[in-house]
Amino acid sequence: MSTLQEELLTIDEFARLPDDGRPKELVRGRVVEMNQPKARHGQICATIVCLYGGYARENEVGHIVSNDTGVIVERGPDTIRGADIAFYSYSQVPKGPLPAEYLTVPPAVVFEVLSPDDRWPKVWGKLSEYLEAGVAVVCVVDPQQETVQIYRPDGSTESLREDDELTLKEFAAEFNVPVQRIFE
Q: Which one of 5, 41, 59, 92 is CB 3.0 to 4.6 Å from 37, fit for a cystine?
């Protein structure tokens, strides 16, 4: 009697899959399809990219990527998560055009914007993967509560509301933005 074993994909195999227009992640070697984000999610992501991306470009501190750009969080079996927004400092990835393939270093900062149907066990698993992979800070943005939860590898957390300032030393020590601006 023979048993069929599912073939797990590597990062390289996943990268070579044809693009069928549906968002996907590679989770422990398996392809997982995701729903397209809705309008409010996209608006908040765009606002974060404008706020942090504009600062990063003007002050030449690093790269901002978005649109579920793949972040390698595990090898053997391989996992690639799609970050809503990520920041790579120029000390991690030199200035200039980014390569066409997945970056092999973790970003310094990841922003994940919650969707109404997200469940905390799944979100917690994803942010834990980012932190274990070497991401210095993960910001979970909650549009319904209009809050930002900040997580770091040392286990420290911060909860910010609309009247608070979001400051990320991992991004740039002198940069801060009122949390309410993210939700305008």
A: 41
